[in-house]
Amino acid sequence: MKTANPRPIVSLIRSHSGFAVGAVSLLVFLLASVPLHAQESTLAGTVMNEGGKALKEAEITLANDEDSAIVLTTVSDKKGAFKLKIAAPGTYTLTIARKGYGPYTTSLEVEPSMDYTTEGIKLYDEKVWQEKRAVDAYNEGVEALSAGDMDEAEERFKEALTLNPELVQVHAGLAASYAHQERWEDAAASLDIFLAALPDHAPIYSLAFDAYRKTGQDEKAAEVLSKVTDENELAQMAVPIYNEAVTMSKAGDPEGAFAGFQKASEIAPHLPEPYRGMAAIRFNEENFAEALVHAEELLKRDPESLEGLRMQFYATRAVDGEGFADALAAYLGAAPAAEEDIVRQAADEFEAGHSDIARKTFEAILDFNPEAAEAHFRLGMVLASDGDSAGAKAHLQQFLDMAPDHKEASTARAMLEGL
Questions:
Q1: What is the rounded CA–CA span in Å between residue 163 and residue 1?
Q2: What pTM was computed for the model?
Q3: By CB neighbour count within 10 A (0-12 exposed, 13-18 middle, 19+ buried), where does 279 fall?
Q4: Is 172 within 8 Å of 10 (Cβ atoms)?
Q5: Is the separation of the CB atoms in 167 and 173 below 8 Å?
Q6: Type and span of the H or E element at 43
Q7: Which of 16-25, 175-184, 347-356 has the lowest mean pLDDT?
Q8: Nearest to 204 by CA among 11, 418, 404
């Protein structure tokens, strides 16, 4: 089973105005004029409130991006206008602030001897600005989460939560970032808050189930699981448990692995992989009766599973169960090359004194494939040993007719002469 990539838990949200705030339009248009004769550049602009009224006494600050040192300051006049003379080219951060309003910040690339004009810079009421900035910070956290930068994601989500504690989506974002860092206690705590506000938000169920399971909160995990009916959602919840079981199996903990596969099968009964895991563990333990049960469940879900067909055949053969010939035919139908191994193994069993199972195997092979020359030879030997001379002669002769140059042909001829 492949460990599917997780679906996004959080997504960009929109501000109260209806416009996406993930990529903010700065409302600034930088217009370059004809170059001046000196190296000095100028930056001029106007500041207004959200309603378009000029704002006087707004503080304008220009800081060097390299070291954050403030290089210029001024204030807007009664018409909201300001002007700065910039002596050196470079990259600067322009900040405009006024009491009662949220700050405005943008980056400015200044070239030598250029005039820049910023028109219509709007400052928003501090409360409105906080709400907008909270949405921006949340969306930046989502982008960082998608890019795999968990530290940045966590920082942006926490900023959003500080600015607007009512922005409940932030808790889902934090939970996702904590889960990526395997900070399951933190993830579960964030999910408690999120689900208290949005208990029917299905996209979060898989993450919540995992976090509660990891922190031993079985009742909460079961409650989340009980809400899920979609098979894809159930599969997503079962995948981590299945993967943990695979890891335990590789680490030499078959019983722990079996319990994990069993749990995954209970969560997502439609998946074949957990049954394959359970069948393989019991098969390796030579608990063939139980292996057969799980192999048959695997084949109900994946009839073409070669591993399932192989285990079904060998387990049926080991327990001498009904349907042995059918199981062999299904296996050889999917893997014709396996015939040689099966003949060899049955021959070894005959040499070890297990003539009944050897005979049964050769007969089943010939029922499926009457042209299996070596199976005729081996069955002839078994029948001769059992005292069935007529049957032995028939199969040995059939073998020689089909493969006169086979390496065992001389042995077959010698046996025929002696019968």
A1: 43
A2: 0.70
A3: buried
A4: yes
A5: no
A6: strand 41-49
A7: 16-25
A8: 11
Number of residues in the chain: 419
Residue 350: count other Cβ atoms within 10 Å of its Cβ.
Answer: 21
At residue 37, the pLDDT reads 45
Residue 83 β-bridge partners: 44
Query: What tokens appear for 257 in the block?
Result: 């692995």
Please determine, for residue 7, whether its predicted confidence score (pLDDT) is greater than 90.
no
The structure tokens 């943990």 sit at 244
SS3 call for 236: helix
Q: Which residues pair with 43 in a beta bridge?
A: 84, 116
Assess contact for 188 and 212: CB atoms under 8 A.
yes
CA neighbours closer than 13 Å in the CB half-sphere of residue 101: 21
Q: Identify the sign of the CA torsion 379, 383, 388, 393.
A: positive
Q: Is 99 helix (H, G, I), strand (E, B) or coil?
A: coil
DSSP one-letter code for 120:
E
What are the helix (H) ranges across 169-272? 169-180, 184-197, 205-214, 218-226, 231-250, 254-267
Phi, psi of 248 (to 5 degrees): -65, -40
Matching residue, tokens 């002669």: 393
CA distance 418 to 224: 75
- Mean pLDDT in residue range 82-98: 94
DSSP designation for 125: B
- Convert the pLDDT of each residue in 199-209 to its tens digit: 999 999 999 99
First to last CA, the chain: 55
